[in-house]
## 1
Amino acid sequence: MSYVEVPGAKVPIRMWADPATVEGGAMQQLQNVATLPWIKGLAVMPDVHYGKGATVGSVIAMHGAVCPAAVGVDIGCGMSAVKTSLTANDLPGDLSRLRSKIEQAIPVGRGMHDSPVDPGRLHGFPMAGWDDFWGRFDGVADAVKFRQERATKQMGTLGSGNHFVEFCIDSNGSVWLMLHSGSRNIGKELAEYHIGQAQKLPHNQGLVDRDLAVFISDTPQMAAYRNDLFWAQEYAKYNRAIMMGIFQDVVRREFKKAKVVFEPVISCHHNYVSEERYDGMDLLVTRKGAIRAGSGDFGIIPGSMGTGSYIVKGLGNEKSFNSASHGAGRRMSRNAAKRRFSARDLAEQTLGVECRKDSGVVDEIPAAYKPIEQVIDQQRDLVEVVAKLKQVICVKG
């Protein structure tokens, strides 16, 4: 489909989703965002659903302002994937050992490494900039400085919620490694600190929703937020790179005879801010549950823990601010999923996938998400599909 335009107070709301299928609360959030004085454009992805302040699955382009709650608390959250030389025929019949090895190597949930991972031991890790990145920790908000040790030990860890590490097979039988994570606790604490700071500012007192509080350009508060935001986005990128390096090491060890070769890693943020230019104007583009899909940009759009995922290439559609969806998108809240489904339902819906099937991850059951094929179909003018993947192992936090 192409987009549908819905009238908004300051800008039209361009929707790559049927407005009739979007929950009332999410539609109200979109209308609220369209009232912001600084807004220059709003694009809505097919995975749109209710969020905090701004919906998940929205792209908000503003001039001279940025809304920290619209970025979300998992700054820089995103995906990484890599195609391997392995094929489905190389995999053992019982995948439980492989899943166990991944879980031993990559801490999940609130876990962390016993000591910081040395990225120098990881094959192909981009070391340039690593020391400079940690050197800049001194410049982040004083409120989170005491978290430095935890931040170093959580680098290269998964987290919980919808984060995952997966072993996938594409339509041609090739094996892919894929993972989803962000900036861990340090990103969350930086986000919450700055959201609190923004809500105190005088220019935000008359907003329709206090969660839409913004920082304005050329102010010390904006400078401080931008510094911490871009640092946290880098943390998330490095976090995924280290996890992927550890994941590749596990695969090398488990498939020694195959001498596994890895193609270049595809990686993309989907909760972040980028400085971009549209219609001759420099804008701050916030993608909350959306990926960049500029012409030729590779992206990853995952489904749920029992369905397929897609590797895509952007078509560079400026109407969406060169964006696409970040996944299938939830169609019910975590609590609603827990009320409606059981561990038995989860086992049925993840048949054939080596993964947790207990009540602790029922909120991640495939039925809690929109059908990924439909979400892909609704954005054919934003991305082209490069590969369709189906997971055979899924490690959840």
## 2
Amino acid sequence: MVSGEMLSIVIFTIIIGVAVLSLENALLRPVKLLLSAIQEVCMTVVKWSMLLVPIAVFGLMAQLTSSVGLSSLSGLTYYVGVVLLGLLLLVIFYLGLIVLLGKKNPLHFLKKIRDVQLLAFSTTSSAAVMPLSLKTAEEELKVDKTISNFIIPIGATVNMDGTALYQTITTLFIAQAYGLEMSLLNIIVVIVTIVAASIGTPAIPGGGVVILASVLGSVGIPAEGIIIIIGVERLLGMFRTAVNVTGDLTACMVFNRFYGKTPILVSEKTDNKSISKQ
């Protein structure tokens, strides 16, 4: 942790997590309370930090621009376009899953989850959208309640596909801005690290930036480079949060097709019971 090796930290925490879950309930409860308290303290510090971001960005961006030059800022529009294109391709992939595995019309799916996407876009928080996601899955998409109650809360924490894509592109962009060449092996290590780290990304606005700073430090890229993209981070955060919740609802549709209780089966069971009683 002191040296900032993010991939090693992720692997270590996975091992510790499995070991903690193997404890007896009497020992597991205080450990969970302690870890929950530590997480709340960390999230409080992150929220305080985000309040200072507008002031800090002005000073640090002026310093960075003077040292790196305006060339790092000229490609910012291209960077935003690449991120948005990647997120669009991810949504298309989700719609393909809806057609192939969910056996549903993708346009009808998008129409029914429109309110969830708009709320995610405005709040940039998967956790804040969770109640509406549950309601939409159960009432609009007709997903079995047991499936939606299982997938959506986990997806709000674990399913950060849009965030992982954004962090990977951002890492490569910042490396190029500093003139650092990354080999194919380094890029693969970065992707694996980011995907693993995104699982623990806090579902709050700007939470992905905190994880991104750790990833940059672990691969030898100056974490100060985040200042280059911090001006557009909020806008990209809106889009990637909408993509994340779309992925959660896509998973609900796929799982519901294979494991959900269909209304037909329920009605058939009811008819069989009534016939046996008669």
## 3
Amino acid sequence: MTSTMSASPSSAPASTAPVNQPPRVLSGIQPTADSFQVGNYLGAIRRWVDLQETHDAFYCVVDQHAITVDYDPQVLRHRTLLSFAQLMAAGLDPQRATIFVQSHVPEHSQLSWVLQCMTGFGEAGRMTQFKDKSAREGADRSTVGLFTYPVLQAADILIYQADGVPVGEDQRQHLELTRDLAQRFNSRFGETFVVPTALIVADTAKILDLADPTSKMSKSSPSGCLFLLDDERVLTKKIKTAVTDSGREIALDRESKPGVSNLLSLIGAFTDRTPEQVATDLQGGGYGDLKTAAIDAVLSFTGPFAAAVAELMADPGELTRLMNLGAHRAREAAAPTLAAVYDRVGFVQLPD
């Protein structure tokens, strides 16, 4: 969600929210790989780390979304733990943000059902991700869960009264559905939800595939994708064999030198410099110097990151404690919204 902002509510419904709290942001990541890749970190998670300093931040491992396609239960369980550990290792702090696993907070699914009953069939069918995935897998193999995925995603956001959602271009349509559902519910039942807006970070580093620098870096391209938990030798080999361009000049030119420009962006992202600054610093060198600088920049982050992940994974008791902490905070925040929704749609509620 993977996700601008106005004054934030707290856990209360929109109409009764305190006005003195920082704006709230919500985003999540699927546990669908054995390691986050560079694009996940630079395009999303690094920004989440920054946002936790200035916002009331909620971040989750969206394991329920991960079962909309074929999966192995044991692999999912391992990847959920590993994803949670990676969020911690990347710099998310349980004292500054609420970090949790989606399935640990049943209010997501409970709100999703209400929202499904307000979503048109044609409206859900127009979601491009569903159309793309069902076209690849075949309609007979596409699940109802995949079809209603965007509605659960809307519930993920609305249950916390999030003001802003960090989103990429591929998620804009889903956020628009979330906004439509919030406005529809508010119009019919009274002001209940904050209508979230897209949180766009203009300077997000866009690192492309090392084997094809005209394409997005993706786990579907093993040779061109840098996974943060890859062994140092693997990362080094991938960068050494990265596609460059004709000539020897190190210059930022995304049209005529996409490979060189991609490596300059990669170095800049991990060394807090612009690609232009990196190009200037490497003037007079060759492509070997460029790749050496890229290897050094990447390994300076991935080495400590992998060590921190390994330490967390070796202590399941601490990992469980942190998950419990996040789940408890998330449920505390979600419960008032769900109670308000249930009351307004006419459900009979029992006293505590």
## 4
Amino acid sequence: MALVNLLDFDLDGLAAHCEGLGEKRFRATQLFRWIHQKGAGDFGAMTDLAKSLRDKLAGTAEIRPLSVITEQASVDGTVKWLFDVGNGDAVEAVFIPEDDRGTLCVSSQAGCAVGCRFCSTGHQGFSRNLSTGEILAQLWHAEHHLRQRLGLAPGGRAITNVVMMGMGEPLQNYGALVPALRVMLDDHGYGLSRRRVTVSTSGVVPMMDRLREDCPVALAVSLHAPTDCLRDELVPLNRKYPLAELMAACQRYLDRAPRDFITFEYCMLDGVNDSPAQARELLDLVQGRVPGIPRVPCKLNLIPFNPFPASGLLRSPRERVLAFAKVLQDGGVVTTVRKTRGDDIDAACGQLAGEVQDRTRVNERLKRLPVRVVPATPVPPGPRSR
């Protein structure tokens, strides 16, 4: 009989499993704390659990880690793990240390089917969704490994923020994502604030509405273009959920979101989406000056493109990125330029590729769809509200 992986359960699910073993809910809470707060992988070490329960668990369940294929550390402190998820597939997770936080970037799929033109993960194709246990195993390993590596005192926390920005489109793996988020947020698990857990999406509108109801956390939307015409080329999902639908979903999400703004991610591509005219178009888009599209309170995060050979794209020069940012800032939109981290270990945004067998032949289809550079539509000058 196959052993049940306890990393697949949120607290309610674990309680139901324990009840099936004839145990009360408080035993599930104790077990949950051992797994996620203390990083225990051996039932024998869970000393405040009844021996009878430990014996039951030993015969029916396990805490299944992911095998680490490689671990790489950058000169800037960034750490990247390549995890084996079986059948020839691997996924990556990245830890990014900063002075006031430690952020873990987590994968939700082996590969990605969305196929954004500037993302190396999308170019490798898609294999499968990860299970809840495989999503959480990345956090479980990173947190408890880093506590030892960094010499943290008992109860110290290495990871303060989680971003679902690794390999895959999280909202296309919704059933596994939401229980994983609940474990991250649970005070008996990792105890993270909803403001410190971020789901990044390329714009799966129906699932954005479901997440708003089921487990609202911080939301980041991969925008990358100010018009449908250009976004259709860069983010193929836009053909299904165009900007009017996407921006309306963002506005709805703010009704329940833990923050009063949406983060829009914008990858800066040389000669493609980085002109001053396109910055003004972007300003008009987010501030509700495009007919049929609502204003969305937001923060813009400009991301330097991390080139890879198959993309045929180049990184925007820094001076053009700063000029683009100035247009947005002068228009009253909080705008940041993301620092590149982990470049020397290919751990930066858009570089995660792992080792995935492309079972959907996405790569072949992408090759038949070359990027068409769409010139920006001139926007007449005029006053811009703050």
